[in-house]
Write a structure and sequence with these properties.
The protein has 135 residues and is mainly α. 31% of the residues lie in helices and 0% in strands. Its cofactor is FAD.
């Protein structure tokens, strides 16, 4: 059996990338969060980007946020051996600033983030579809 529906698959990819139809305002795909959640130790990145192999742990997801000593120890020179980021999205900062520079955070597993967000725990479905988000 082939599971293929052009419209459904295309729509799901757009939705996952944050550019499809979505009831939430300003939804974006957060590459840093996904990297930390699903490649916590950075093994996948290390496999495909040899220039970053010297960076230990999850720091590999944000090499531009490392201090110069950590970059030097890893043999990485931003702008020379690895490019500077073209864009740094504001929503990435909360994932970068949660850990000290040059060190890896507590490993995450496949079940999700290390600290689930509790601030929306008691909100009903109406919160997510209302226009007022100050509640």
């Amino acid at each position: 059996k082939v599971d293929y529906d052009v419209c459904s698959n295309y729509g799901n990819w757009l939705y996952s990338a944050g550019v499809g139809n979505d009831p939430r305002d300003n939804r974006k795909f957060n590459m840093i969060k996904q990297g930390l959640d699903y490649d916590g130790d950075g093994d996948y990145v290390r496999l495909w980007i040899p220039e970053l192999r010297g960076i230990k742990g999850a720091d590999i997801h944000t090499p531009w946020a490392l201090n110069s000593a950590a970059l030097s120890q890893a043999g990485v020179t931003l702008g020379e051996t690895y490019p500077q980021p073209v864009v740094t999205a504001p929503e990435w900062s909360r994932h970068i600033s949660q850990r000290p520079q040059g060190r890896s955070p507590r490993p995450r597993d496949r079940r999700g983030p290390a600290h689930p967000a509790a601030q929306h725990k008691d909100r009903g479905i109406d919160f997510y579809f209302s226009h007022k988000k100050d509640a």
